[in-house]
Write a structure and sequence with these properties.
The complex is a heterodimer of chains A (about 110) and B (about 110). By secondary structure, chain A is an all-beta fold. Helices cover about 0% and strands about 55% of the residues of chain A. Chain A contains no helices and eleven strands. In chain A, the strands form two sheets. In chain A, strands 2, 4, 5, 9, 10 and 11 form a six-stranded mixed beta sheet that branches. In chain A, strands 1-3-8-7-6 form a five-stranded antiparallel beta sheet, with no helix packed on it. Chain A is globular, with a radius of gyration of 13 Å. The termini of chain A are far apart. Chain B has no helices and eleven strands. In chain B, the strands form two sheets. In chain B, strands 2, 4, 5, 6, 9, 10 and 11 form a seven-stranded mixed beta sheet that branches. Chain B has a four-stranded antiparallel beta sheet with strand order 1-3-8-7, with no helix packed on it. Chain B is globular, with a radius of gyration of 13 Å. Classes of the chains: A mainly beta (about 110), B mainly beta (about 110). At the A-B interface, β4, β5, β9 and β10 of A face β5, β9 and β10 of B.
Chain lengths: ~110, ~110
């Protein structure tokens, strides 16, 4: 069963515009959520996270929104830059488990056109 | 280089052969994780260590898989009697036990079983 789902395999955006990547989850025990970015031939790198007690977290151009009632989170990138082109993974941690034991979504390929 | 290092980067083997992957963590990170990523999917948790103790194993880790972390430093992941379904990217990630969420991933070891 896919407990974390990213239903959009790909997203194409013009440079300078907003990129919105979405993620849905089913496990109500998840209490911490993260976004990772992956470039080809590299391992995933941490981008931003949010605890379940918050509904928004910002870091520069990146903002993550959490809607617990809808079991939905999203990542907003404003403004988008060509260097943001990568695969983005949503991930979640269940309460009482190690912070490194994550359940990942399938990923969304973001392409930012100049 | 102070990142997580994985070797070999690529391994091609015939079905039935044994393979071993090595992960050298960031030196002060006491937790080490193994993940597997197949094409079009996100990473899936396999197992993790705190220092030399293996604390958890996923159901994905069949009897043909064994992981070790002698002396709490580098770790090895061995797959015995490989099958074509074992073809995947094997990712190692580490963090300090006190840190929240930010895993540092290596570049991965890609296994192709013919």
């Amino acid at each position: 069963d896919q407990q974390v789902k990213q239903n959009s395999p790909s997203l194409s955006v013009q440079e300078g515009r907003i990129s919105i990547l979405n993620c849905d989850y089913t496990n109500s025990m998840f209490d911490y959520f993260l976004w990772y970015k992956k470039y080809p031939a590299e391992g995933p790198t941490f981008l931003i996270s949010i605890s379940s007690i918050k509904d928004k977290n910002e870091d520069g151009r990146f903002t993550v929104f959490l809607n617990k009632s809808a079991k939905h989170l999203s990542l907003h990138i404003v403004p988008s830059q060509p260097g943001d082109s990568a695969v983005y993974f949503c991930a979640a941690k269940a309460g009482g488990t190690s912070y490194g034991k994550l359940t990942f979504g399938q990923g969304t390929i973001l392409t930012v056109h100049p | 280089d102070t990142g997580v290092s994985q070797n070999p980067r690529h391994k091609i083997t015939k079905r039935g052969q044994n393979v071993t992957f090595r992960c050298d963590p960031i030196s002060e990170h006491n937790r080490l994780y193994w993940y597997r990523q197949t094409l079009g999917q996100g990473p899936e948790f396999l197992t993790y260590f705190q220092n030399e103790a293996q604390l958890e194993k996923s159901r994905l880790l069949s009897d043909r898989f064994s992981a070790e972390r002698p002396k709490g430093s580098f770790s090895t992941l061995e797959i015995q009697r490989t099958e074509q379904g074992d073809s995947a990217m094997y990712l190692c990630a580490t963090h300090r036990v006190s840190e929240t969420g930010e895993l540092f991933f290596g570049e991965g070891s890609r296994l192709t079983v013919l």
